[in-house]
Amino acid sequence: MDDMEENKRIILNDDEIVLYSPYDSGEVIAIKEIAGARWDRLNKAWRVPVSSLKQVKAYAVKFDYWLDPDLRVLDLPEHPYEREGIDLSGESIAIRFRYDSVKVAEVKQVAGSRWDGKNKVWKCPKSSLIQAIEFAKNFRLHVPKELESMQLKISQSQAEKIAASRATSADIEVPDLEGELLPYQKAGVEYIIKHRKVFLADEMGLGKTVQALASVQHENAFPCLIVCPPNLALNWAKEIDKFFPTRTWKRVVNRSDFPEEDADFTIVGYSNIDFHPEKLKGYTSYIFDESHYLKNPKSKRTKRSQSLVKTASGNGLVLCLTGTPITNRPAEYGPQLEIIGRLKEFGGLWAFYKRYCGAFRDRFNQWHIDGASNLDELNERLRGSCYIRRPKDQVLQDLPPIRHSEWMIDPDPKHLAEYGKAEKDIAKFVAERAAELAKELGKDPKSAAVRAKFAAEAHEHLIKLSVLKKIAAKSKLKAVEEWVESRINEGRKVVLAAHHREIVDLLADKYGGLKIQGGMTSEEVQAAKETFMEKDAEEAPVIVLSIQAAKTGHTLTAAQDMLFVEHPWTPADVDQVSARIHRIGTTGSVQITHALAAGTIDEEVFKLINYKRTIVDAATDGSIEDLKEINAASLMEDFLPS
Question: For residue 50, what are the contacts with CB-CB under 8 A and spacing of at least 6?
């Protein structure tokens, strides 16, 4: 062996090939292309696995190396592929290596990985490139430079998208919007219109509805189908009228009839989507509200929703709105990812379950997918492609201390007959009283004099309207239950406010018995408050307040959500009860929701409260204008004969 051979030689050392050579940048580049090559700093040599023998021999010939005689005669059996490593294969990443149980166990951890039996190779989606490269480098497998460059670009792009998914401001204008979006809501709209198929997962109460509507409006992505829980359908209609009054909407209210008129928005409940399959196809945009309703991949509504979005026309929007954070139930996200067309990025449903839901098969061969695994990775991958979520504490600077919102509910049909009878009873009473007053005054029952006399004594008769209020409250209980459960499932505490003892008791019995109402001793009240304030949301999620008994002197700041199931007659009482969860020194913003049964006394009482508030505010500001008076008397006058 001459001096050149001494400096440039390749030998067999146990189960590795060792290359000794003087430094040459061209040769270094070439040797790095050999699968599994690594630099041994201690011995100042390159080490290569024997499995790369064919590449080593080609390298020796090309760069004129002395080759160990044992290597000259060594010939490895043919293998389906020449190089162990990863490369791009169509829309997938191919991962090639000779069988090794350790490698097989590890490659299964790459999101979406699967064995391609036909081509004898492991594959994973391109969205798992970063994991695939990490796997390859851990086992010293070959990684082409173009894939490393692609990884760098993907990492940079994901970093930008992740930052955008947490953004709290943006410079964007929505045409024909009545009112103003908050800064973080503008950022939400910007994210949606850029990514098109999106989870909008802001914490409850941050205005996902208006962000979704504004996104569709900004893109003029009409017609749009809104699919939601039935008890939220009226709320969507109300929000459209409030923010985009120039837009039209229609609502599917039952299983047999479908409104034929053209409209920008069509609103349908989850319970009805399976009964109008052809009518719900071909919309430009689809919005699925409370999309955790679609968590079961086998349910009819999930399958129907998945089939509907495949008929979407043009480059519209597909949005899943949910307040459920990933960490609670990651399995729920699998079927929803299919709806927004993102599931393939995770290798399919079962690849998603196995990677992120800790899926396992028990001794009875049953699969369990209710766990959680690799959640940080899941959060980053979702945010890097299709997921935007801002918790309330991130956007507090944009929120008022107390936020009020109306929730219009379709009353439960089983209470409508009772409500109708009560209305007739009141109408009969009013007609009889009007006749008595007419006789006393010697006037026609329809005369202004009779109406004025009746109005003067109307407050004495308000107890009769309380009957309607109680029936209306009963008609909301089913919807209220869903509202409360959704908050409890998020680990949030809730305060419910009601007027009638029967309603307070029904609600308290449903949720653990904590309540404050008349007839309780001071010790009982204090015990209820302490339990609610000191125990966690799992043990003490709800306390129910009697409006008159609990409107002063109580602190319940463990909750940031309050629901008025019934309403008092005055805004002062509303404010006093609301103040139970927002005391002096409270940090953060609380949400007060007003549940109103559509077409009932609820709407009139709430108008009365708002009218009184308007009068007080106008008087305070010194700017009273002509307002149509609404008062308790006018509510009774509605029953007078016309």
Answer: 12, 15, 16, 17, 74, 76
